[in-house]
């Protein structure tokens, strides 16, 4: 079946959550896409989100160089969430850590799992 | 630092997205939690979501037996998304597939990656 980004289920704001996972299995981040950025991601092979804070297209790594090259896009059963398998250049997180999920909850306390990269 | 679920950033509806990943690295699903279900998940060790369609607490696997036992909860840099590392009993998806992300987009077409489990 041909994939049509218009068939995804977007929020009232026209957004769909997108999870980025690297080829080694690490979950790197979760951000949001619009129909337009889903199309751009598939067309260019470079993962492109929608920045809710800036209300603008966010070509991941455009300024930092920490681009995400799309290996495969996946759609969930409800068609309201995307999973991007990516080749991540450098750290994914704006804190310079590999993943945004660097804080674990252990015995009721926050534990930092990874340090910023040099 | 003590973890306080009240410090997470919830939507206007009081929700936070939660990604479930199994211990083998597979991303299983994305659903939503409330502050109350974050607390219940940590207290019980069984992953509990908020069902937006039913507007009710959703104790994953309560009727199907396909429970998610929490191995570790992680918080992202913006404190507006959670990652649950889980031990998944049976399939995570309501279609009886291991993961909800069973559809890949390849060359513009939808390709089914996994079949329902018996």
Automatic annotation (TrEMBL), chains A, B:
Q: Which cofactor does it need?
A: Zn(2+); Mg(2+)
Enzyme Commission number(s) from the entry: 3.5.4.19
Q: Name one GO biological process term.
A: L-histidine biosynthetic process
InterPro entries reported for this sequence? PRA-CH, PRib_AMP_CycHydrolase_dom, PRib_AMP_CycHydrolase_sf
A molecular function (GO) held by this record is: zinc ion binding
Q: Name one GO cellular component term.
A: cytoplasm
- Domain Phosphoribosyl-AMP cyclohydrolase: residue ranges: 29-102
Q: What does this chain do? A: Catalyzes the hydrolysis of the adenine ring of phosphoribosyl-AMP.
Stated family:
In the N-terminal section; belongs to the PRA-CH family. In the C-terminal section; belongs to the PRA-PH family.
Subunit (UniProt): Homodimer.
Q: What is this protein called?
A: Phosphoribosyl-AMP cyclohydrolase
Q: Which organism is it from?
A: Pontivivens nitratireducens
